[in-house]
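Before relying on records like the one below, remember that each one covers exactly one chain. Contacts with other chains, cofactors or solvent are not represented anywhere in the record.
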Amino acid sequence: MQLADRIAPLQANVFADMDRAKAQARAAGQCIIDLSLGSSDLPTPPHVLSAIAASLQDPDTHGYALFNSTQPFRQAAAEWCQRKFGITADPETEVLALIGSQEGTAHLPLAVLNPGDFALLQDPGYPSHAGGVYLAGGQIYPMPTQADTGFLPVFEDIPPAVLAQAKMMVLSYPHNPTTACASLDFLKSAVAFCQAHGLVLVHDFPYVDLTFDGQTAPSVLQADPDKTVSVEFFTLSKSYNMGGFRVGYAVGNPTLIKALRQIKANVDFNQYRGILRGAIAALNGPQDCVQQTVERFRQRRDAAVAALARIGWDVPTPTATMYIWAKLPAPWATDSIGFSTQLVAATGIAVAPGIGFGKSGEGYVRLALVHDPEVLDQAIPKIGNFLAK
């Protein structure tokens, strides 16, 4: 059987390799403490669950959910953006419900790219951004996103020949995996660059609320209030711990929203309307649950940074996200997957190898703060013992 060429770039997957390594370690008797996946362990707020539960008894929610049935959710999303950022968005033409923001970032390239067109992606960056480009037949130009530039890409370094074939740029701040934040001035420079070169600007924004120590995360639509080139993707997975419910939305340029809606119409309907009712309760309801989530992750961040310092591994203190981006010590500085697979085999502690996020991620590992401090205080000394050996 011969499969399509477009899936060839998707064959190599470091995270699938790590999943096998975890399974092998578990089979060998290790108790796994998984710091490799950014899936929140915190519960969905009770008022959100109540809204979903009440929907189960309503037969009006049991059928297909087409675009018009998502109007109350789109309205709630538009109102949330207005409260949060002062952004005005038309729920009919500038907001689209998604089955998680990853669905949007993976499908949008199908609407923007012709085969051979370039997409400008951060390196390191979130892996599904590349997957969507490959499925659309596009080419990827990796924009180095490294410590010496504050984990911000340098647009002037993009070759003119690449720009001539480029159709879109994808950014994401606060950034996974590096935890970096971007200023509104940087986002304005990105908008101006994309306007000058005829590029669509995509901003993936899952960590909008997960900021610490007074840090705030600006919206790209604050930099592009007329939505001339921009579309932004939001999710309820992180702020409201709703990852398993798969609910997100896009806000932005109406031409891009319409095009993404056309792709969706040929690929899927929307999620169960009860989930959308839960999402409305999350966006419109009390927001103290968000601050409680942020505080839990801040406590975990502080515990992990302190524990790593005690084993002699000094890392920068993140001001956002639910991760630590740790530069590997010698002799592992060029073998993040070797470090990660051997660590889980020897200790049961699983981390994500930096190379899985792109070539520029080599030499780092990402630790997801998905356990409370007492578990981190148990796991990190085991990493220290591994390094000592």
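The chain has a mean pLDDT of 95.
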